[in-house]
Specification:
By secondary structure, the protein is mainly beta. The strands form three sheets. It has a four-stranded antiparallel sheet, with no helix packed on it. Strands 4-10-9-6 form a four-stranded mixed sheet, with no helix packed on it.
Length: 169
């Protein structure tokens, strides 16, 4: 028993020393986004950063036509969608890098192409109300290359629960 424990300790120490003696250049391959989330080695995700040499008026500005939408009353299980329209009213080229929904029941879709000043884009959200009932409010967090680096779109719906049917045998 003691030999097995000693071998385990020695194996752990060898592994620890091997990993801790990596060259500094090897650890440079790890990248993190603005929220300190790990990015894979070959990630093509552009990370928005504030350029300290850039003036605030040089950044793009995202102007969302209606960042709050109400689907009204829908039935449980309905899949509904809405298109949020936005325009770049700033001077820089706008990129919507990510659109992260607050739950798995919402799927955002958008073209990831850059928008110059005055150009418009759309973010379509698809909401699946399965398993939901009552008043619901959901959020989609946008990561952009604007000065603030983010924006929010929200929607709500009043969901009527499915009526239960009773089968008589």
């Amino acid at each position: 028993m003691m030999i097995k424990n000693s071998i385990s300790v020695i194996a752990f120490l060898v592994l620890f020393l091997t990993l801790s003696c990596k060259k500094q250049d090897e650890s440079a391959e790890f990248r993190f986004d603005a929220k300190n989330n790990f990015l894979p080695q070959n990630s093509q995700l552009a990370i928005p950063t504030v350029d300290k040499n850039k003036k605030p008026e040089d950044y793009p500005i995202i102007k969302i036509d209606d960042s709050n939408f109400d689907f009204g009353t829908i039935n449980e299980g309905d899949k509904v969608e809405h298109i949020f329209k936005f325009t770049n009213t700033g001077n820089g080229t706008l990129m919507v890098i990510t659109a992260q929904p607050s739950c798995g029941c919402t799927v955002p879709e958008w073209k990831k192409n850059p928008l110059k000043k005055g150009e418009s884009g759309e973010i379509k959200i698809i909401f699946n109300s399965a398993g939901k009932s009552g008043q619901q409010q959901k959020t989609v967090y946008l990561t952009t290359n604007t000065l603030s680096g983010n924006d929010i779109i929200t929607f709500k719906a009043n969901i009527l629960p499915k009526k239960e049917t009773i089968k008589i045998k």
